[in-house]
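As a next step, we paired sequence with structure tokens, yielding the entry below.
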Amino acid sequence: MITEVLYRKWRPQTLADVVGQEHVTQTLLNALAQERVAHAYLFCGPRGTGKTSTARILAKAVNCLKNGRGEPCNDCHICQAVTGGSALDLIEIDAASNRGIDEVRDLRERANYSPSEARFKIYIIDEVHMMTTPAFNALLKTLEEPPPHIIFILATTEAHKLPLTIVSRCQRFDFRRISQEATLGRLETICQAEGVEPDPWVLRFISRASGGSLRDAENLLEQLMVSYGNRIEPRHVRELLGISAEMPLEVFIASMLRGDVAESLRILHGVVEQGANLRYFQRELLEYLRSLMMVVAGAEDVVDIPAEEMTSLKGLAPEIGLEDVTRALHIFSGVDLKADGAGPFALETALVEVCLGLGKRIARPEASARFSDSSKESLEKPPAPVKESPPPIQQTTDLPPETVATPRPEAREPDEPAGPEPSPPDDEERPGPEPVPINDIDVFRRRWPELVDALKGQGSKGSLDALLRNACEPIAIEGETLVVGFYYPFHKSKIEDPKYRHLVEKKVSEVFGAPYKIRCDLVTRESPPPPARTPDHGPLVQAALEMGARVLDDGLEKAN
């Protein structure tokens, strides 16, 4: 015996039954009461939010034999025919399979005929964005000035794909995603009527997992009812969807926010070992991080989650900044789990990247205390030879500013010969290159090939170095901006793209030891920029130039 599925059995039959779309239903009720029903409507919004159901209710309401100026009675034979799908004057068209100009021409011809028994003939065109451009053009005139007995209702999930000429001829209603509270209330009503006794957590979980689609929520509830009967427990949901039962998501998030790579990887490994659905795990992780971002940003009132989850989020919020949680969202949203053979590798890589970024930003109180104690001892005891790499110097309130300043070479007597510089231990990290003087453009020109080689493999196709090799050269330094002259507009426009310019600026900072912004100018190869003047300065001025000074007026113009 074939039974009717829940989402069809519980399809709303009046405008008051439509869940979460009060802004639409109230306007339609007002139009019915004032007999100002439009000739064409456009219902757009996400799937499962009631677009087609509302269109059918409107078709019943305008043709109802008992009312006609409000809610349908659902008792007259017109209402019952629409509900049962046998109404002759309700024509539903699937634009995905009837998208051509021939189908629209046939529609236009049939639209001229009067209704068989109802007051209005209703055309519901579902997924209307799938129609071809010639079909839209053929529909324009009829949609703008239809016969007086015709009402068009267009429904789509992608309104941005419709021509503006179509949209402007309709009254548009945007259906919203249904809130978790509204979905939860509807599921409770269904369970009570169907004799189902689910655990309260189950319905909250279904409401959150449906993503604002009531149809998806009803389908998931029915799947659980068929699989486990009328008593549904949390373990049933985990078994059906492949969700880890041992690891609450907040535990995983908390270890990640601490920058604890090892613990986070162990938890993720446990999730994989239990056979959890990694795609669903990723979706839940992103939803949790999104809610955390809202709480950290102070917009907790827009987060639609149960009270106990909000308490958990508020406990985590002080441990992370808005920049960090946004970075974690960006990284995890870029993980592609479509290839089943990849396993957890992509998630593990993203997890390590997030933890490393957080580990650099989160303060370590124990490290600060150790440094504070060792610094105090160093003020009281003579310096000892360094055998191990010291911890990074941090500014603390226990030390005056001069104790953390850059160390200066010890003073020695004039007659004392300078001894050899002690070589650093092998395991000690050697200092990087000194920052290039801000006015030394010749250094940039000399080391430009080194920068180009360092960009090999960068860019969307790994050919970013080709855009800079033999196609440009550094021409000037303006403050912290490096001006690069390009010989061809093509190469200049490519590097001006933010995603490429960011890579070049990052590599310039690594190669030359100081952050620089990039500005692109167009120059000709035949007339390269004049070389920097190097007048013969005295030893005092030369020493100042080497320390980063800049000559404002050397008198050459006056002399000439």
The chain is about 45% helix and 10% strand.
